[in-house]
Amino acid sequence: MKRFYSAIFLLVSFSAFAQRPEASFGVNGRVVVPSVDSLFDLVTQPDGKILGLGYTQVYSRWGIFRLNTDGTMDQSFGNGGTVSGSISNEWGHTLAIQPDGKIILAGDSGLPSKVAVLRRFMPDGSTDVSFGNAGKVSKRIDSLWVNYNSVLIQPDGKIMAGGVRVGQDQLYSIPHLMIDRYNTDGTLDSTFHIPTVRALSNYTGPNIRLQPDGKILTSDIYRFNTNGTLDSLFGINGYLNLRTYVISDLRVQSNGGILVQSRDATRAYRITSSGRVDSAFGLNGLSADTCPSGVTYGGSLVILPDGSFLTSGTNSHPIIARHDSTGHIMPGFGYQGYQVFNDSFPDLQGFIMATTTSGQLTAGGARYNGGPVVVYLYRDLDLPSGIADVADEQSQIYPNPAVGQISIRSKQHTSHIRITDITGKPWIDSDVENTTTHQIDVTGLCEGTYVVTIKSVGQTQHCKLTIVR
Length: 469
Known about the structure:
CATH topology of the largest domain: Methylamine Dehydrogenase, Chain H
Number of domains: 2
Radius of gyration: 24 Å
Largest sheet: 5 strands, antiparallel
Strand content: 35-45%
Mean pLDDT: 78
Number of helices: 0
Protein backbone atom coordinates (compact mmCIF):
# COMPACT_ATOMS: atom_id res chain seq x y z
CA MET A 1 0.00 0.00 0.00
CA LYS A 2 1.21 3.49 -0.87
CA ARG A 3 -0.75 6.51 0.31
CA PHE A 4 -0.22 10.01 -1.05
CA TYR A 5 -2.58 12.79 0.10
CA SER A 6 -3.04 15.38 -2.58
CA ALA A 7 -5.10 17.55 -4.82
CA ILE A 8 -2.85 16.98 -7.84
CA PHE A 9 -2.71 13.67 -9.60
CA LEU A 10 -0.29 12.68 -12.35
CA LEU A 11 0.10 9.56 -14.45
CA VAL A 12 3.14 8.96 -16.63
CA SER A 13 3.52 6.02 -18.99
CA PHE A 14 6.81 5.34 -20.75
CA SER A 15 8.55 2.43 -22.33
CA ALA A 16 11.41 0.85 -20.43
CA PHE A 17 13.09 0.54 -23.81
CA ALA A 18 12.71 4.13 -25.00
CA GLN A 19 14.01 7.55 -24.03
CA ARG A 20 10.71 9.42 -24.09
CA PRO A 21 7.19 8.88 -22.74
CA GLU A 22 4.82 6.93 -24.92
CA ALA A 23 3.35 9.66 -27.14
CA SER A 24 0.24 7.55 -27.76
CA PHE A 25 -0.63 7.57 -24.03
CA GLY A 26 -2.72 10.59 -23.01
CA VAL A 27 -1.06 13.86 -24.00
CA ASN A 28 2.62 13.22 -24.68
CA GLY A 29 2.61 10.39 -22.16
CA ARG A 30 0.68 12.17 -19.39
CA VAL A 31 -2.87 11.76 -18.11
CA VAL A 32 -4.72 13.72 -15.48
CA VAL A 33 -7.62 12.04 -13.67
CA PRO A 34 -9.94 14.79 -12.41
CA SER A 35 -12.25 12.46 -10.50
CA VAL A 36 -9.56 11.51 -7.96
CA ASP A 37 -7.32 13.78 -5.90
CA SER A 38 -4.89 11.31 -4.37
CA LEU A 39 -3.22 8.07 -5.38
CA PHE A 40 -2.88 4.92 -3.31
CA ASP A 41 -2.29 2.13 -5.83
CA LEU A 42 -1.72 1.37 -9.52
CA VAL A 43 -2.33 -2.03 -11.12
CA THR A 44 -2.06 -3.06 -14.75
CA GLN A 45 -4.51 -5.60 -16.15
CA PRO A 46 -3.41 -8.42 -18.48
CA ASP A 47 -5.02 -6.54 -21.39
CA GLY A 48 -2.84 -3.48 -20.65
CA LYS A 49 -5.57 -1.33 -19.13
CA ILE A 50 -4.54 0.55 -15.98
CA LEU A 51 -6.47 0.53 -12.71
CA GLY A 52 -5.83 3.23 -10.13
CA LEU A 53 -7.12 3.70 -6.62
CA GLY A 54 -7.40 7.07 -4.92
CA TYR A 55 -9.51 9.13 -2.60
CA THR A 56 -11.89 12.04 -2.99
CA GLN A 57 -11.27 14.31 -0.01
CA VAL A 58 -14.42 16.36 -0.63
CA TYR A 59 -16.66 13.33 -0.07
CA SER A 60 -14.19 11.30 2.08
CA ARG A 61 -14.60 8.26 -0.15
CA TRP A 62 -12.38 5.99 -2.18
CA GLY A 63 -12.42 6.09 -5.97
CA ILE A 64 -11.26 3.56 -8.58
CA PHE A 65 -10.54 4.63 -12.14
CA ARG A 66 -9.60 2.65 -15.23
CA LEU A 67 -7.68 3.89 -18.24
CA ASN A 68 -7.49 2.39 -21.70
CA THR A 69 -4.07 1.63 -23.12
CA ASP A 70 -4.04 5.03 -24.84
CA GLY A 71 -4.73 6.85 -21.55
CA THR A 72 -8.37 7.70 -22.16
CA MET A 73 -10.92 6.95 -19.46
CA ASP A 74 -12.47 3.52 -20.00
CA GLN A 75 -16.15 4.31 -20.55
CA SER A 76 -17.07 0.64 -20.08
CA PHE A 77 -15.98 0.83 -16.44
CA GLY A 78 -18.32 2.23 -13.82
CA ASN A 79 -19.54 5.76 -14.52
CA GLY A 80 -17.37 7.19 -17.29
CA GLY A 81 -14.35 5.21 -16.16
CA THR A 82 -14.70 5.68 -12.39
CA VAL A 83 -16.28 3.76 -9.52
CA SER A 84 -16.68 5.69 -6.24
CA GLY A 85 -17.53 4.62 -2.74
CA SER A 86 -20.98 5.36 -1.35
CA ILE A 87 -19.99 5.49 2.33
CA SER A 88 -18.16 8.46 3.85
CA ASN A 89 -14.91 7.74 5.69
CA GLU A 90 -14.37 4.44 3.93
CA TRP A 91 -10.81 4.19 2.65
CA GLY A 92 -9.49 1.93 -0.06
CA HIS A 93 -5.76 1.25 0.25
CA THR A 94 -4.89 -1.30 -2.42
CA LEU A 95 -6.25 -3.37 -5.32
CA ALA A 96 -5.82 -6.87 -6.74
CA ILE A 97 -7.13 -8.41 -9.95
CA GLN A 98 -8.41 -11.97 -10.08
CA PRO A 99 -7.72 -14.18 -13.12
CA ASP A 100 -11.37 -13.81 -14.14
CA GLY A 101 -11.00 -10.01 -14.20
CA LYS A 102 -12.85 -9.31 -10.96
CA ILE A 103 -11.31 -6.60 -8.79
CA ILE A 104 -10.65 -6.75 -5.05
CA LEU A 105 -10.38 -3.57 -2.96
CA ALA A 106 -8.89 -3.70 0.54
CA GLY A 107 -9.29 -0.93 3.09
CA ASP A 108 -11.08 0.17 6.24
CA SER A 109 -14.18 2.04 7.25
CA GLY A 110 -15.51 4.19 10.06
CA LEU A 111 -14.27 6.83 12.51
CA PRO A 112 -13.19 6.59 15.28
CA SER A 113 -13.84 2.83 15.41
CA LYS A 114 -12.36 1.21 12.29
CA VAL A 115 -13.46 -1.92 10.47
CA ALA A 116 -11.28 -3.82 7.99
CA VAL A 117 -13.02 -4.05 4.62
CA LEU A 118 -12.80 -6.06 1.40
CA ARG A 119 -14.97 -5.29 -1.61
CA ARG A 120 -15.22 -7.16 -4.92
CA PHE A 121 -16.27 -5.74 -8.27
CA MET A 122 -17.09 -7.26 -11.61
CA PRO A 123 -14.78 -6.39 -14.56
CA ASP A 124 -17.16 -3.58 -15.55
CA GLY A 125 -16.97 -2.01 -12.08
CA SER A 126 -20.35 -3.15 -10.81
CA THR A 127 -20.54 -4.75 -7.36
CA ASP A 128 -20.14 -8.53 -7.25
CA VAL A 129 -23.08 -9.38 -4.97
CA SER A 130 -21.95 -13.03 -4.73
CA PHE A 131 -18.99 -11.95 -2.58
CA GLY A 132 -19.42 -11.77 1.19
CA ASN A 133 -22.46 -9.75 2.21
CA ALA A 134 -23.73 -8.21 -1.04
CA GLY A 135 -20.21 -7.59 -2.31
CA LYS A 136 -18.49 -6.64 0.94
CA VAL A 137 -16.58 -8.41 3.72
CA SER A 138 -16.13 -6.62 7.06
CA LYS A 139 -13.94 -7.59 10.00
CA ARG A 140 -14.50 -5.94 13.36
CA ILE A 141 -12.66 -6.65 16.62
CA ASP A 142 -14.17 -5.00 19.71
CA SER A 143 -12.08 -2.18 21.17
CA LEU A 144 -9.47 -2.50 18.40
CA TRP A 145 -8.72 -0.42 15.31
CA VAL A 146 -8.22 -2.77 12.34
CA ASN A 147 -7.49 -2.34 8.64
CA TYR A 148 -6.46 -4.12 5.46
CA ASN A 149 -3.63 -2.41 3.60
CA SER A 150 -2.48 -5.20 1.30
CA VAL A 151 -4.22 -7.90 -0.71
CA LEU A 152 -3.21 -10.66 -3.12
CA ILE A 153 -4.83 -13.53 -4.98
CA GLN A 154 -3.42 -17.03 -4.48
CA PRO A 155 -3.17 -19.43 -7.44
CA ASP A 156 -6.12 -21.39 -6.04
CA GLY A 157 -8.26 -18.25 -6.06
CA LYS A 158 -8.24 -17.64 -2.31
CA ILE A 159 -7.76 -14.05 -1.18
CA MET A 160 -5.02 -13.04 1.26
CA ALA A 161 -5.48 -9.72 3.08
CA GLY A 162 -2.90 -8.10 5.34
CA GLY A 163 -3.14 -5.23 7.81
CA VAL A 164 -2.79 -4.33 11.47
CA ARG A 165 -4.84 -4.43 14.62
CA VAL A 166 -4.17 -1.95 17.39
CA GLY A 167 -5.89 -0.36 20.35
CA GLN A 168 -7.92 2.72 19.49
CA ASP A 169 -5.52 4.83 21.53
CA GLN A 170 -2.82 4.32 18.91
CA LEU A 171 -0.23 6.50 20.65
CA TYR A 172 0.19 4.05 23.53
CA SER A 173 -0.80 0.79 21.86
CA ILE A 174 1.43 -1.73 20.13
CA PRO A 175 0.23 -2.66 16.65
CA HIS A 176 0.13 -6.32 15.73
CA LEU A 177 0.16 -7.97 12.34
CA MET A 178 -3.16 -9.17 10.96
CA ILE A 179 -3.32 -11.51 7.97
CA ASP A 180 -6.52 -13.29 6.99
CA ARG A 181 -7.31 -15.66 4.16
CA TYR A 182 -10.73 -15.78 2.53
CA ASN A 183 -12.34 -18.32 0.26
CA THR A 184 -13.42 -17.20 -3.20
CA ASP A 185 -16.96 -16.45 -1.95
CA GLY A 186 -15.70 -14.15 0.81
CA THR A 187 -16.07 -16.56 3.72
CA LEU A 188 -13.14 -16.74 6.13
CA ASP A 189 -10.74 -19.67 5.61
CA SER A 190 -10.71 -21.30 9.04
CA THR A 191 -7.60 -23.37 8.20
CA PHE A 192 -5.34 -20.30 8.21
CA HIS A 193 -4.14 -18.57 11.39
CA ILE A 194 -1.05 -16.50 12.15
CA PRO A 195 0.45 -16.13 15.64
CA THR A 196 0.51 -12.82 17.50
CA VAL A 197 3.52 -10.87 16.22
CA ARG A 198 4.29 -7.18 16.33
CA ALA A 199 3.64 -5.15 13.18
CA LEU A 200 6.90 -3.29 12.63
CA SER A 201 5.23 -1.30 9.85
CA ASN A 202 3.34 0.40 12.68
CA TYR A 203 -0.16 1.58 11.77
CA THR A 204 0.12 1.61 7.98
CA GLY A 205 0.05 -2.16 7.68
CA PRO A 206 2.41 -4.43 5.77
CA ASN A 207 2.82 -5.30 2.16
CA ILE A 208 2.40 -9.04 1.66
CA ARG A 209 3.88 -11.13 -1.16
CA LEU A 210 3.43 -14.75 -2.12
CA GLN A 211 6.44 -16.91 -2.94
CA PRO A 212 6.17 -19.54 -5.69
CA ASP A 213 6.02 -22.26 -2.99
CA GLY A 214 3.01 -20.58 -1.39
CA LYS A 215 4.80 -19.15 1.64
CA ILE A 216 3.85 -15.62 2.64
CA LEU A 217 6.32 -12.74 3.04
CA THR A 218 5.52 -9.45 4.73
CA SER A 219 7.31 -6.12 4.64
CA ASP A 220 7.91 -6.56 8.36
CA ILE A 221 10.25 -9.35 7.14
CA TYR A 222 8.28 -12.24 8.56
CA ARG A 223 7.70 -15.39 6.56
CA PHE A 224 4.74 -17.66 7.19
CA ASN A 225 3.99 -21.16 6.01
CA THR A 226 0.90 -21.82 3.92
CA ASN A 227 -1.16 -22.50 7.07
CA GLY A 228 -0.07 -19.25 8.78
CA THR A 229 2.56 -20.62 11.15
CA LEU A 230 5.93 -18.86 11.23
CA ASP A 231 8.52 -20.48 8.97
CA SER A 232 11.33 -21.60 11.28
CA LEU A 233 13.65 -22.04 8.28
CA PHE A 234 13.61 -18.28 7.62
CA GLY A 235 15.81 -15.86 9.57
CA ILE A 236 15.45 -16.44 13.30
CA ASN A 237 12.22 -18.34 13.93
CA GLY A 238 10.57 -16.79 10.88
CA TYR A 239 11.77 -13.20 11.30
CA LEU A 240 14.65 -11.05 10.05
CA ASN A 241 15.50 -7.73 11.68
CA LEU A 242 16.96 -5.36 9.08
CA ARG A 243 17.18 -2.49 11.58
CA THR A 244 15.47 -0.11 9.20
CA TYR A 245 12.48 1.94 10.33
CA VAL A 246 9.85 0.95 7.78
CA ILE A 247 10.03 -1.16 4.62
CA SER A 248 8.34 0.60 1.73
CA ASP A 249 8.00 -2.37 -0.64
CA LEU A 250 9.29 -5.88 -1.32
CA ARG A 251 9.40 -8.21 -4.33
CA VAL A 252 10.58 -11.75 -5.04
CA GLN A 253 13.16 -12.22 -7.80
CA SER A 254 13.01 -15.16 -10.21
CA ASN A 255 16.05 -16.71 -8.46
CA GLY A 256 14.26 -16.66 -5.10
CA GLY A 257 16.03 -13.58 -3.77
CA ILE A 258 13.85 -11.12 -1.86
CA LEU A 259 14.27 -7.41 -2.59
CA VAL A 260 13.12 -4.97 0.09
CA GLN A 261 13.15 -1.18 -0.18
CA SER A 262 13.45 1.07 2.86
CA ARG A 263 10.93 3.86 3.21
CA ASP A 264 13.71 6.48 3.42
CA ALA A 265 15.78 5.48 0.37
CA THR A 266 15.79 4.24 -3.22
CA ARG A 267 18.24 1.54 -2.16
CA ALA A 268 17.19 -2.06 -1.65
CA TYR A 269 18.41 -4.98 0.42
CA ARG A 270 18.42 -8.49 -0.94
CA ILE A 271 17.54 -11.32 1.38
CA THR A 272 18.25 -14.95 0.61
CA SER A 273 15.47 -17.53 0.66
CA SER A 274 16.77 -18.65 4.07
CA GLY A 275 16.26 -15.19 5.55
CA ARG A 276 19.80 -13.80 5.58
CA VAL A 277 21.11 -10.59 4.07
CA ASP A 278 22.80 -11.57 0.78
CA SER A 279 26.34 -10.19 1.06
CA ALA A 280 26.97 -10.92 -2.66
CA PHE A 281 24.34 -8.34 -3.61
CA GLY A 282 25.44 -4.74 -4.15
CA LEU A 283 27.65 -3.68 -1.24
CA ASN A 284 27.26 -6.16 1.62
CA GLY A 285 23.65 -6.84 0.73
CA LEU A 286 22.55 -3.26 -0.02
CA SER A 287 22.23 -1.88 -3.54
CA ALA A 288 24.26 1.12 -4.65
CA ASP A 289 22.74 4.59 -4.34
CA THR A 290 23.79 7.63 -6.35
CA CYS A 291 20.66 9.70 -5.84
CA PRO A 292 21.30 13.32 -4.86
CA SER A 293 20.44 14.92 -1.52
CA GLY A 294 19.03 11.75 -0.01
CA VAL A 295 15.50 10.40 -0.19
CA THR A 296 12.96 11.33 2.44
CA TYR A 297 10.20 8.98 1.31
CA GLY A 298 10.63 5.66 -0.46
CA GLY A 299 7.92 4.75 -2.92
CA SER A 300 7.67 1.41 -4.67
CA LEU A 301 9.81 -1.29 -6.25
CA VAL A 302 9.23 -3.14 -9.52
CA ILE A 303 11.26 -5.86 -11.25
CA LEU A 304 11.61 -5.51 -15.02
CA PRO A 305 11.62 -8.41 -17.50
CA ASP A 306 15.42 -8.34 -17.85
CA GLY A 307 15.88 -8.85 -14.09
CA SER A 308 16.87 -5.28 -13.34
CA PHE A 309 14.69 -3.38 -10.91
CA LEU A 310 13.42 0.14 -10.32
CA THR A 311 12.89 1.91 -7.02
CA SER A 312 11.12 5.22 -6.54
CA GLY A 313 11.28 7.88 -3.87
CA THR A 314 11.20 11.60 -3.13
CA ASN A 315 13.71 14.20 -2.00
CA SER A 316 12.10 17.45 -3.13
CA HIS A 317 11.11 15.84 -6.45
CA PRO A 318 10.24 12.29 -7.49
CA ILE A 319 13.19 10.01 -8.25
CA ILE A 320 13.33 6.67 -10.03
CA ALA A 321 16.56 4.67 -9.75
CA ARG A 322 17.51 1.57 -11.72
CA HIS A 323 19.76 -1.29 -10.61
CA ASP A 324 20.79 -4.48 -12.31
CA SER A 325 19.80 -7.83 -10.82
CA THR A 326 22.97 -7.92 -8.68
CA GLY A 327 22.34 -4.55 -7.01
CA HIS A 328 24.67 -2.37 -9.07
CA ILE A 329 23.46 0.96 -10.38
CA MET A 330 22.81 1.07 -14.13
CA PRO A 331 24.52 4.27 -15.30
CA GLY A 332 22.82 4.04 -18.69
CA PHE A 333 19.52 4.95 -17.02
CA GLY A 334 18.90 8.69 -16.70
CA TYR A 335 21.94 10.32 -15.09
CA GLN A 336 24.23 7.76 -13.48
CA GLY A 337 21.36 5.42 -12.78
CA TYR A 338 18.59 7.68 -11.59
CA GLN A 339 15.98 9.95 -13.12
CA VAL A 340 14.88 13.07 -11.23
CA PHE A 341 11.53 14.60 -12.19
CA ASN A 342 12.55 18.17 -11.51
CA ASP A 343 10.66 20.36 -13.96
CA SER A 344 8.92 23.20 -12.16
CA PHE A 345 7.09 21.83 -9.14
CA PRO A 346 8.35 20.74 -5.71
CA ASP A 347 6.92 18.24 -3.23
CA LEU A 348 5.35 15.76 -5.63
CA GLN A 349 5.26 12.52 -3.66
CA GLY A 350 7.33 9.52 -4.76
CA PHE A 351 5.94 7.63 -7.70
CA ILE A 352 3.92 4.45 -7.43
CA MET A 353 4.99 2.18 -10.25
CA ALA A 354 3.52 -0.80 -12.09
CA THR A 355 4.72 -2.70 -15.15
CA THR A 356 2.53 -3.76 -18.04
CA THR A 357 2.59 -7.06 -19.88
CA SER A 358 4.51 -5.39 -22.74
CA GLY A 359 7.31 -4.26 -20.44
CA GLN A 360 6.18 -0.65 -20.19
CA LEU A 361 6.23 1.19 -16.90
CA THR A 362 3.31 3.19 -15.55
CA ALA A 363 4.13 5.65 -12.77
CA GLY A 364 1.81 7.93 -10.85
CA GLY A 365 2.12 10.53 -8.12
CA ALA A 366 0.20 13.34 -6.51
CA ARG A 367 0.58 16.37 -4.24
CA TYR A 368 -1.55 18.97 -2.51
CA ASN A 369 -1.19 22.63 -3.55
CA GLY A 370 -4.53 24.02 -2.53
CA GLY A 371 -5.73 24.17 -6.12
CA PRO A 372 -7.36 22.13 -8.87
CA VAL A 373 -6.01 19.07 -10.62
CA VAL A 374 -2.94 19.97 -12.68
CA VAL A 375 -1.07 17.88 -15.25
CA TYR A 376 2.62 18.36 -15.96
CA LEU A 377 4.20 17.31 -19.24
CA TYR A 378 7.57 15.62 -18.99
CA ARG A 379 9.74 15.45 -22.03
CA ASP A 380 13.26 14.17 -22.59
CA LEU A 381 13.01 11.34 -20.07
CA ASP A 382 16.29 9.53 -20.56
CA LEU A 383 15.02 6.00 -19.95
CA PRO A 384 16.94 3.45 -22.02
CA SER A 385 16.57 -0.19 -21.14
CA GLY A 386 20.18 -0.45 -20.04
CA ILE A 387 23.47 -1.32 -21.64
CA ALA A 388 23.92 -2.83 -25.08
CA ASP A 389 26.39 -5.70 -25.29
CA VAL A 390 27.81 -4.16 -28.45
CA ALA A 391 27.42 -0.88 -30.25
CA ASP A 392 24.59 -0.76 -32.78
CA GLU A 393 24.55 0.48 -36.34
CA GLN A 394 24.74 4.10 -35.14
CA SER A 395 28.19 3.71 -33.60
CA GLN A 396 31.15 1.35 -33.28
CA ILE A 397 33.68 0.79 -30.52
CA TYR A 398 36.83 -1.11 -31.42
CA PRO A 399 38.72 -3.00 -30.32
CA ASN A 400 36.36 -4.44 -27.75
CA PRO A 401 37.66 -6.05 -25.54
CA ALA A 402 40.38 -3.42 -25.36
CA VAL A 403 43.81 -2.97 -23.72
CA GLY A 404 45.20 0.51 -24.32
CA GLN A 405 43.23 2.63 -26.79
CA ILE A 406 39.77 2.47 -28.33
CA SER A 407 38.21 4.14 -31.34
CA ILE A 408 34.62 5.32 -31.26
CA ARG A 409 33.00 5.97 -34.61
CA SER A 410 29.48 7.35 -34.90
CA LYS A 411 27.22 8.26 -37.77
CA GLN A 412 26.30 11.46 -35.94
CA HIS A 413 28.75 14.05 -34.64
CA THR A 414 29.64 13.23 -31.03
CA SER A 415 29.92 16.00 -28.43
CA HIS A 416 30.48 14.13 -25.15
CA ILE A 417 31.86 10.75 -24.05
CA ARG A 418 31.63 9.31 -20.57
CA ILE A 419 33.02 5.96 -19.39
CA THR A 420 31.81 4.64 -16.05
CA ASP A 421 32.30 1.41 -14.17
CA ILE A 422 29.35 -0.77 -13.18
CA THR A 423 28.94 1.10 -9.87
CA GLY A 424 28.36 4.33 -11.80
CA LYS A 425 31.72 5.90 -10.95
CA PRO A 426 32.97 7.98 -13.90
CA TRP A 427 36.56 7.34 -15.07
CA ILE A 428 36.48 9.35 -18.28
CA ASP A 429 33.99 12.19 -18.63
CA SER A 430 34.69 14.97 -21.09
CA ASP A 431 33.49 17.03 -23.98
CA VAL A 432 35.09 16.03 -27.27
CA GLU A 433 35.61 17.62 -30.63
CA ASN A 434 32.34 17.58 -32.53
CA THR A 435 33.31 14.93 -35.09
CA THR A 436 32.29 11.35 -35.89
CA THR A 437 35.54 9.57 -34.90
CA HIS A 438 37.41 9.73 -31.58
CA GLN A 439 40.44 8.02 -30.04
CA ILE A 440 40.20 7.36 -26.30
CA ASP A 441 43.12 6.22 -24.11
CA VAL A 442 41.91 3.60 -21.64
CA THR A 443 45.27 2.44 -20.29
CA GLY A 444 44.36 3.87 -16.89
CA LEU A 445 41.33 1.60 -16.51
CA CYS A 446 41.55 -1.61 -14.53
CA GLU A 447 40.34 -4.90 -15.98
CA GLY A 448 36.57 -5.20 -15.95
CA THR A 449 33.32 -4.08 -17.53
CA TYR A 450 32.54 -0.42 -18.22
CA VAL A 451 29.72 1.59 -19.78
CA VAL A 452 30.47 4.02 -22.59
CA THR A 453 27.91 6.81 -22.93
CA ILE A 454 28.05 8.52 -26.33
CA LYS A 455 26.12 11.76 -26.71
CA SER A 456 25.44 12.81 -30.29
CA VAL A 457 23.00 15.14 -31.96
CA GLY A 458 19.52 14.15 -30.81
CA GLN A 459 20.47 10.88 -29.15
CA THR A 460 22.39 9.21 -26.33
CA GLN A 461 23.77 5.67 -26.57
CA HIS A 462 25.06 3.36 -23.86
CA CYS A 463 27.39 0.49 -24.80
CA LYS A 464 29.40 -2.09 -22.92
CA LEU A 465 33.20 -1.95 -22.97
CA THR A 466 35.41 -4.74 -21.68
CA ILE A 467 38.96 -3.96 -20.54
CA VAL A 468 41.47 -6.82 -20.31
CA ARG A 469 44.91 -6.76 -18.69
